[in-house]
């Protein structure tokens, strides 16, 4: 299952609106087939793995990070039927598909065909890998990650606006990896006008993983950019699983004030700026007590001379 999760995670940012599923087929202790959801969402991970396994899929165990789909599409058959027809003896799935077109029906089809089914193995890791898809199904919007590069004292720039570069090369490379795992990147009009950012992926071998670009602005449209007039417009992004918000302070504040941020990445540099531009403005809190219990720190790590702090929104 760990291998299946890793395969699915590698596809994150390329499969929306489909989930980034990973699949491994094992026969007599040997991996005979594996795959991930293809770019664009088809073929599904199970179909890729079954094709690779061929006749060796018969009597094998199939590990998948998500319940095999149960609905037939113009783009391909239902994976639960493919699995049953291939003679798979056992399916181990991390989580049930929340998509109402499947939602337990895939397991029902498999069991009816005589396939043994076990669920819940690797559940936490699979949910983390497919958090974008699961968030979109649960809330009708992408999972939103806010990225900030800050000094020790929480500044994003000097009073003049200069911010290149607060962090070092390792932190900036990690940002590009996050971009490669996102379906869309968004900045505000101020950042666009000041920096003319490309927002592409500049890691060797991953250049083609550059996501779509979006601009938060009520102004004129910009060629090559998708326009959102309000943070609430994320609810119309039905083909985006993971949205990365990169700047600037006003845009970050707007998303936080609407309580739309699910994850914050802070790249903390070992520098002091003193007087400078703060990371956020007023986000709607009037008492310190209201600020507690909203964010959980996870996965802190050094990145060269800098430090990455990851915070996840605690929701009911």
From TrEMBL:
The keyword Metal-binding does not apply. Gene3D superfamilies: Cytidine Deaminase, domain 2, Dihydrofolate Reductase, subunit A. InterPro entries: CMP_dCMP_dom, Cytidine_deaminase-like, DHFR-like_dom_sf, Eubact_RibD, RibDG_C, Riboflavin_Biosynth_HTPR. It comes from the Bacteria. Pathway: Cofactor biosynthesis; riboflavin biosynthesis; 5-amino-6-(D-ribitylamino)uracil from GTP: step 2/4; Cofactor biosynthesis; riboflavin biosynthesis; 5-amino-6-(D-ribitylamino)uracil from GTP: step 3/4. SUPFAM superfamilies: Cytidine deaminase-like, Dihydrofolate reductase-like. Keywords: Hydrolase, Multifunctional enzyme, NADP, Oxidoreductase, Riboflavin biosynthesis. Pfam families: dCMP_cyt_deam_1, RibD_C. GO terms for molecular function: 5-amino-6-(5-phosphoribosylamino)uracil reductase activity; diaminohydroxyphosphoribosylaminopyrimidine deaminase activity. The keyword Lipid biosynthesis does not apply. Its EC number is 1.1.1.193, 3.5.4.26. Residues 1-107 form the CMP/dCMP-type deaminase domain. In the N-terminal section; belongs to the cytidine and deoxycytidylate deaminase family. In the C-terminal section; belongs to the HTP reductase family. Converts 2,5-diamino-6-(ribosylamino)-4(3h)-pyrimidinone 5'-phosphate into 5-amino-6-(ribosylamino)-2,4(1h,3h)-pyrimidinedione 5'-phosphate. PANTHER family: 2,5-DIAMINO-6-RIBOSYLAMINO-4(3H)-PYRIMIDINONE 5'-PHOSPHATE REDUCTASE (PTHR38011:SF7), DIHYDROFOLATE REDUCTASE FAMILY PROTEIN (AFU_ORTHOLOGUE AFUA_8G06820) (PTHR38011). This is Riboflavin biosynthesis protein RibD.
């Amino acid at each position: 299952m760990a291998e299946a999760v890793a395969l699915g995670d590698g596809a994150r940012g390329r499969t929306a609106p489909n989930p980034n599923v990973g699949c491994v087929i094992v026969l007599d202790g040997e991996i005979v087939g594996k795959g991930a959801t293809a770019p664009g969402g088809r073929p599904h991970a199970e179909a890729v793995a079954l094709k690779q396994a061929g006749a060796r899929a018969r009597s094998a165990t199939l590990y998948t990070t998500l319940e095999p789909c149960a609905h037939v599409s113009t783009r391909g058959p239902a994976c639960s039927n493919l699995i049953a027809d291939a003679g798979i003896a056992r399916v181990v799935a991390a989580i049930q598909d929340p998509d109402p077109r499947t939602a337990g029906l895939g397991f029902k089809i498999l069991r009816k065909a005589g396939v043994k089914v076990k669920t819940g193995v690797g559940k936490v890791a699979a949910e983390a890998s497919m958090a974008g898809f699961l968030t979109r199904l649960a809330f009708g919007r992408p999972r939103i990650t806010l990225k900030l590069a800050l000094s020790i004292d929480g500044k994003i720039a000097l009073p003049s606006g200069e911010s290149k570069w607060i962090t070092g090369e390792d932190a900036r490379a990690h940002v590009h990896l996050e971009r490669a795992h996102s379906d869309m990147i968004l900045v505000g009009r101020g950042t666009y006008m000041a920096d003319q950012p490309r927002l592409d992926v500049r890691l060797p071998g991953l250049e083609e993983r550059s996501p779509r670009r979006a601009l938060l602005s009520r102004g004129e449209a910009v060629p090559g950019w998708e326009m959102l007039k309000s943070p609430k417009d994320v609810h119309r992004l039905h083909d985006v699983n993971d949205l990365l918000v990169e700047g600037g302070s006003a845009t970050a504040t707007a998303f936080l004030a609407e309580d739309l941020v699910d994850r914050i990445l802070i790249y903390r540099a070992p520098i002091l700026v003193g007087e400078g531009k703060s990371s956020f403005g007023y986000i709607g809190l009037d008492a310190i007590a209201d600020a507690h219990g909203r964010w959980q720190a996870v996965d802190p790590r050094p990145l060269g001379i800098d430090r990455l702090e990851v915070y996840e929104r605690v929701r009911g």
